[in-house]
Design a protein that fits this description.
Elements lengths: L2 H8 L4 E5 L5 E3 L12 E10 L2 E8 L2 E2 L4 E6 L4 E6 L4 H4 L1 E9 L5 E11 L7 E3 L3 E5 L4 E8 L6 E6 L9 E3 L7 E8 L9 E7 L9 E18 L4 E4 L4 E10 L6 E4 L2 E4 L3 E4 L8 E7 L7 E17 L3 E4 L5 E10 L4 E6 L2 E7 L2 E4 L8 E11 L7 E13 L5 E5 L4 E3 L4 E8 L7 E6 L17 E4 L8 E9 L2 E2 L3 E15 L4 E5 L6 E9 L3 E6 L2 E2 L8 E8 L5 E8 L17 E8 L4 E16 L5 E3 L6 E10 L3 E6 L14 E7 L4 E8 L8 E8 L4 E9 L8 E8 L4 E6 L10 E8 L13 H5 L5 E6 L4 E3 L7 E9 L11 E4 L10 E5 L4 E6 L6 E9 L7 E8 L10 E6 L4 E2 L11 E2 L4 H8 L12 E7 L2 E5 L3 E2 L1 E2 L12 H32 L1 H7 L9 H7 L14 H15 ...
Parallel strand pairs: 1-9, 11-17, 18-24, 25-31, 33-39, 40-47, 48-54, 62-72
Antiparallel strand pairs: 2-7, 3-4, 3-8, 4-5, 6-7, 8-9, 10-12, 12-15, 13-16, 14-15, 16-17, 17-19, 19-22, 20-21, 20-23, 23-24, 24-26, 26-29, 27-28, 27-30, 30-31, 32-34, 34-36, 35-37, 37-38, 37-39, 39-41, 41-45, 42-43, 42-46, 44-45, 46-47, 47-49, 49-52, 50-53, 51-52, 53-54, 55-56, 56-59, 57-58, ...
């Protein structure tokens, strides 16, 4: 054996094998060389490293343990070791198969098997435990230990919240009985307190995904952290409370802290409070805390004391000579520093001087005064809003000068007699040194030094004024430098009214006394006015009951004596001067001037006979009720009452049985009330009772009827007490209520014709004269009653009735009232044309009778500018149906003399060139904010009730004069024109059709049926849907006439269908019809019977429309029975089949230009893109095909085409009466694309056989199909499927 082969055998690597307890396995040892047993030795050995151990398992073919067996076949290169019931203690280790050469002992073959008997590890245990107590910055170890496990487990440390493994020192156990340890070394910080660490244990013996875990939580004791606040630096305003807070974060916690300032201990509380801080409290404060871990925490807090500016001026006064330069310094201290320092002067708001030093050069007397140094800083104390603080100080600058002009306040004193007054004298300039003030009175002529001095003081006091104090008072100021100018005022003394003759307090007169007069007299200053009152209400001349005569008399010192007489005379009195009972009352003469008032009163009593005051001469009560018959009178002297019943002259008296009770009451107004109370009323008590009233002057009898309760009597004297623009308040005199207090009132009203004097413009007369129905308003018991929700300036009729539980009264008298106008409209537009001096006014529709007031601006370029009325337009010719226009030449309209033109009008137009030029320039530059012409509208019968102004625009008016035709008239004319145009169009169509019939022989030879048709593709895309058919199936002769028209139009190259867009539109144009509209009546072109659309030129909103080429419109014809059979037969099935087939034909969407034979007119057709089945409409593919279909190309339209036409197509005259024959329907292709069940059939196609109808059929662009018709026309519809006169169905889309 060579050395190379030995080396290759020895180069086998270790094989790792995992197994479990009690398993069986084979450790293979294979070799390719043949090692004879006689020449080589064979060995199996097992070794373990912990503890170190080496055992022979087998030698040769002999196993050394009963758990092993050998497969020993060296001749085949096999020396396998078989292990049964594997156990960890016996088999876990490294197995080696070795072959040695005998003699030399050289190894010729080696194989190694690392056999691992898998054993899971035990759950891990963490030291020092699940809670690990640590100290900040002191290293500590966390050890995770897991016993056993084969192979040795892996132990990994994690910090909870992260998946990154932490580096740890691992010590493997080596055997399943020894622990494997992983030690994690950490240095805890404060942030680690509460952190959780986890160790994860796993080996291969554990199932996939399974692992063992243990967790420990750090409990870190950390040093104290100190935070001071609430903010640093802490800014506190002086005299407020400062709270220095010390927040400590420590573990374990600290019970207290230590506050120090400048090294001195001041407090141990967490919050150190300083009340009313001062500037001396500002500085650094230190808070320290120690929790015993060997390291204390501390923090400095700066306390900043804020205070407003303190302004100090060295002297409060500064004296200077005139012409001297003055410097005054202002010292300011503040925290924070002031943002501004400025000087102000009292009484001089415009004086400002910035800086801390005030400098005044060349001072004069007017510089004297008080100067204020003002400093401002901005403070924001902790917890406070940002605020501005001000400090100031004042210095008086005294400039030596003599006093100036003196002034006395008040300058026009007025004092009432008995009141005090103080006059004050001052001078400007005041003078320095301080002057002396001297007072004088009534100086006549020049002032002299020997004039008597009243007082020497700035103030002169009169404690109690009297008339003798009235007069002139003078004062002036004097100092060592001179005398100032004198001031003079006039003191007036006023006296309140003082009675000279008062009224007698009580006075009695008899009725019919004549010429009774009372007199008052009083004096006062100024002259008092006088009023006469009766019972507190002023006596007015309009009453025609009194005359007042007043005589003023001017006395000395402005005193006025006023005598006034009240005479009881007037037109309303009997005889013009007799007293009446109503004169009784309290009369007062009231004097008043600006000082005070004075009055004197008299109680006048009039002796008169009794006067009845009760309202009704009847009362109503029901049987068994207690009736009260009331007699109410006014009389003086006191009257006596007697009651009588019926014709019995004996007076009634209070009966012993209590049937009658009589009581009498009175009040302070000589009103007496006697009540006859009748208990348990019977029928016998009904009747007339007489109230007999007697006093010394007369005797009266008042009959009062007692009756049963009944309906109310009608109200009377209905009247309007207040009228507004939308309401009327009514009042009335209620009638007797029938004895029922629950009586309500109802007002009925309606709109009526307006009285002629209030009539509006004629246009509105119809509306105003249209009476409306009565409307009822429930007033309940309210008198007066308000009726609202009315129209403005409208006449209404009103009447009122009463209602109680018994019945209703008749209506009262009827009155008519017109509501007021709420708001006057303003003109829509006002224009002024300067060249013609024409003013144009446009007014909207209104029923009010208005006038226009034109105003212009005078002196617009001066402070005296004012508006002036220059014209009033009376006849505006207003209308209630629409706007109106009024023009008027205004001769008085003015324009200003100024360059550049404008709207201001300043001088009268007199016709000269210069004035006309100014007027023409009005259309130039205009001041929009200064109109010079304006117009307002006012009521004709009340020129004060006007609307807002409208400013005139310069230039010609642009609103045309309103049409004289009313709107209804205009609509009637338009409709008439439409009907006439429709009739003319139908007549023209009829005549042309008849003319074509006369030429049908010649036309048949020249007519090519398909000359005006497009290709089948275009036809499929653009063919109009079939027309509406009436359900009756009767012939429509009007449709036949429309066919004649269609054929004649084809001759003129204007085929209605072949050349039109899908809506019967000409391409690019509007709807074909009268004046651009479509006349489609009854479904046919030009037909009569309804269902068409009339287009009229000139009617807004009704215009022609064009349609995109690929759009259809569903006309709704699918919802009817479209039969052209007399008996409603099979044609309906054909129609339905047509719809189905159309869905196959409407697929194409390309436009095709087709060349027709014989130079016939062919036009490119726009596409539709319409799905007949989806839209419920018809398609464009023919549904009738009883004849052979031909496919024609441009080269094949010669004789064959002509012969086909002559043999199968009827002439045009055969179809002239058929309204549908002129509409070309394309045929389906037979040979290439469509296998139609209708090809070459003679009978009616099966409408349900649809399996051959393909939706994607599209004909080639150049194919030209002919349309085959039957040879004859019967003039009626057939009921047989094979009828040769079947109609081709079409629709006109409008």
């Amino acid at each position: 054996m060579t050395t190379i082969s030995l080396l290759s055998c020895l180069a086998l690597a270790d094989e790792s094998i995992d197994t479990r307890e009690n398993a069986d396995l084979v450790l293979k040892c294979r070799f390719s060389e043949k090692y004879e047993a006689d020449d080589f030795s064979y060995f199996w050995t097992r070794s373990v490293s912990n503890p170190a151990q080496f055992d022979n398992v087998a030698i040769g073919e002999v196993q050394l343990s009963s758990g092993y067996s050998l497969d020993f076949h060296p001749e085949r290169g096999i020396y396998d070791l078989q292990i049964k019931n594997v156990s960890y203690n016996r088999d876990n280790g490294r197995f080696e198969c070795r072959i040695k050469a005998k003699g030399t002992g050289a190894d010729v073959h080696q194989e190694f098997h690392n056999l691992t008997v898998l054993t899971p590890p035990h759950p891990p245990v963490i030291s020092p435990g699940s809670i690990a107590v640590a100290t900040e910055d002191k290293p500590m170890e966390l050890t995770c230990s897991s016993i056993g496990g084969s192979p040795d487990p892996t132990i990994t440390w994690y910090r909870e919240g992260t998946n990154a493994p932490l580096p740890a020192t691992v010590l493997y156990g080596g055997t399943k009985d020894q622990p494997t340890n992983a030690t994690l070394l950490i240095t805890p910080r404060r942030e680690d307190d509460g952190a959780r660490y986890k160790c994860v244990v796993r080996n291969r013996a554990m199932n996939e995904g399974k692992r063992l875990e243990a967790v420990t939580t750090l409990n870190v004791n950390y040093y104290a952290r100190v935070e001071v606040g609430p903010e640093n630096p802490l800014r506190v305003e002086r005299d407020r409370t400062a709270k220095l807070e010390c927040n400590v974060d420590a573990k374990p916690k600290v019970p207290n802290v230590r506050w120090t300032r400048n090294g001195s201990f001041i407090s141990s509380s967490l919050v150190h409070t300083i009340h009313r801080v001062s500037v001396q409290d500002a500085g650094k404060y230190t808070c320290s805390a120690d929790n015993g871990l060997g390291k204390a925490g501390e923090q400095e807090l700066i306390l900043d004391i804020l205070y407003p500016p303190t302004v100090v001026i060295e002297s409060k006064t500064r004296e200077a000579e005139e012409g001297e330069t003055v410097n005054i310094r202002c010292n300011v201290t503040a925290n924070p520093s002031p943002v501004t320092i400025e000087w102000l002067k009292e009484g001089a708001p415009d004086f400002r001087y910035s800086g801390d030093v005030l400098t005044l050069a060349s001072v004069r007397a007017e510089h004297a005064g008080n100067y204020i140094c003002r400093a401002v800083n901005i403070m924001q104390s902790q917890g406070q809003e940002r605020s501005e603080r001000v400090g100031n100080s004042t210095v008086a600058l005294l400039v030596r000068h003599r006093p100036g002009q003196a002034y006395i306040t008040p300058n026009k004193p007025v004092v009432h007699v008995g009141n005090g007054v103080t006059l004050t004298c001052s001078a400007n300039p005041p003078g320095w040194p301080v002057p002396q003030y001297r007072w004088f009175r009534d100086i006549e002529g020049e002032f002299s030094s020997n004039q008597q001095i009243l007082a020497q003081d700035p103030h002169y006091n009169i404690p109690k004024a009297h008339l003798g104090n009235e007069g002139q008072y003078h004062c002036h100021a004097v100092n060592e430098l001179g005398i100032g100018k004198m001031a003079t005022i006039m003191l007036e003394i006023h006296q309140p009214p003082q009675f000279l003759a008062k009224l007698q307090q009580h006075m009695t007169r008899r009725v019919a006394d004549t010429d009774y007069t009372v007199t008052c007299s009083a004096k006062g200053k100024p002259a008092p006015s006088i009023k006469w009152l009766k019972d507190g209400v002023e006596i007015l001349p309009e009453l025609n009951l009194y005359e007042v005569k007043t005589n003023p008399d001017q006395g000395p010192n402005g005193m006025v004596t006023v005598q006034s007489m009240l005479k009881f005379r007037g037109k309303a009195r009997p005889g013009g001067n007799q007293l009446v009972p109503g004169d009784r009352g309290l009369y007062t003469c009231l004097y008043h001037n600006e000082v005070n008032s004075a009055n004197s009163s008299m109680q006048l009593r009039i002796e008169h006979e009794p006067i009845v005051l009760h309202q009704y001469n009847k009362v109503a009560f029901d049987i068994r009720e207690t009736a009260e018959v009331v007699c109410k009178v006014q009389a003086y002297p006191k009257p006596e009452f007697q009651w009588q019943f019926g014709n019995n002259p004996s007076p009634l008296s209070m009966s012993s049985d209590g049937h009658y009770e009589i009581s009498t009451t009175t009040d302070s107004n000589d009103i007496y009330t006697s009540v006859l109370r009748i208990n348990s009323l019977t029928h016998a008590d009904y009747g007339e009772y007489t109230c007999r009233v007697v006093n010394s002057l007369d005797t009266i009898r008042a009959p009062i009827r007692l009756q049963q309760k009944g309906p109310p009597e009608k109200p009377t004297n209905l009247r309007a007490v207040e009228v507004g623009h939308n309401f009327v308040t009514l009042s009335w005199d209620p009638g007797f209520d029938g004895g029922l207090s629950k009586t309500k009132f109802f007002i009925n009203y309606r709109r009526v014709a307006m009285p002629r004097e209030e009539q509006l413009i004629p246009d509105c007369a119809t509306m105003a004269n249209a009476n409306s129905d009565w409307v009822e308003v429930d007033c309940h018991r309210d008198i007066p009653c308000k009726v609202s929700s009315l129209d403005q300036h409208q006449s209404y009729a009103f009447k009122v009735k009463a209602l109680n539980p018994k019945s209703v009264s008749p209506f009262s008298n009827e009155i008519t009232t017109t509501t007021k106008v709420s708001r006057i409209p303003q003109p829509l537009q006002v224009t002024y044309e300067p060249s013609t001096r024409t003013l144009g006014i446009d007014v909207g529709a209104t029923c009010l009778n208005l006038i226009a007031v034109v105003e212009t601006m005078l002196h617009s370029d001066t402070p005296m500018a004012a508006w002036e009325v220059v014209e009033t337009l009376e006849n505006l010719q207003l209308s209630g149906n629409g706007p109106t226009h009024k023009e008027k030449v205004i001769e008085r309209l003015n324009s200003p003399r100024r360059s550049g033109g404008g709207r201001a009008l300043g001088h009268t137009i007199d016709g000269d060139d210069e004035d006309m030029g100014a007027l023409n320039n009005l259309s130039g530059d205009q001041d929009e904010n200064s109109p010079t012409v304006r117009v307002k509208l006012c009521l004709r019968n009340n020129h004060e009730h006007c609307g807002d102004y409208t400013d005139a625009e310069i230039g010609r008016p642009y609103i045309a004069e309103a049409s004289a035709l009313a709107t209804p008239t205009l609509i009637a004319i338009i409709v008439s024109c439409i009907v006439f145009a429709l009739f003319a169009g139908l007549l023209l169509m009829f005549c042309r059709c008849k003319r074509n019939q006369s030429k049908k022989s010649a036309a048949a030879k020249d007519y090519e049926m398909d000359s005006v048709r497009p290709s089948i593709v275009a036809a499929q895309q653009n063919q109009a849907p079939p027309p509406y058919y009436p359900a009756s199936g009767l012939d429509n002769k009007a449709l036949e006439h429309s066919m004649d028209l269609a054929l004649s139009m084809e001759e003129q190259k204007t085929a209605l269908y072949a050349t039109q867009n899908g809506y019967s539109y000409h391409p690019g144009s509007g709807v074909v019809g009268v004046g651009g509209g479509v006349v489609g009546v009854g479904g046919g072109v030009g037909s009569i019977g309804g269902g068409g659309v009339v287009g009229v030129t000139g009617i807004p909103g009704l215009t022609g429309h064009t349609l995109p080429g690929n759009e259809w419109v569903n006309m709704g014809y699918m919802e009817n029975n479209y039969s052209n059979s007399n008996n409603g037969g099979s044609v309906n099935s054909q129609d339905s089949l047509w719809q189905v087939k159309m869905s196959a034909a409407a697929v194409g969407n390309q436009q095709t230009l087709v060349t027709a034979p014989h130079n016939q007119y062919v036009e490119q057709q726009p596409t539709y893109g319409y799905d007949p089945l989806t839209h419920g409409g018809y398609g464009a593919v023919d549904d009738y095909a009883p004849y052979p279909h031909l496919t024609a190309t441009p080269s094949q339209v010669g004789d064959e085409y002509h012969n086909l036409r002559n043999s199968q197509n009827p002439s045009r005259q055969d179809y002239c009466s058929d309204p549908y024959a002129s509409v070309q329907k394309p045929k389906k292709r037979v040979d290439q694309h469509l296998d139609s069940p209708y090809h070459d059939v003679s009978g009616l196609p099966n409408p349900y056989n649809m399996e051959h109808m393909e939706q994607d059929e599209v004909m080639p662009p150049q194919q030209h199909m002919s349309l085959n018709y039957d040879d004859s026309f019967e003039g009626e519809y057939s009921t047989t499927p094979n009828a040769r006169n079947r109609r081709v169905i079409r629709e006109i889309i409008v």
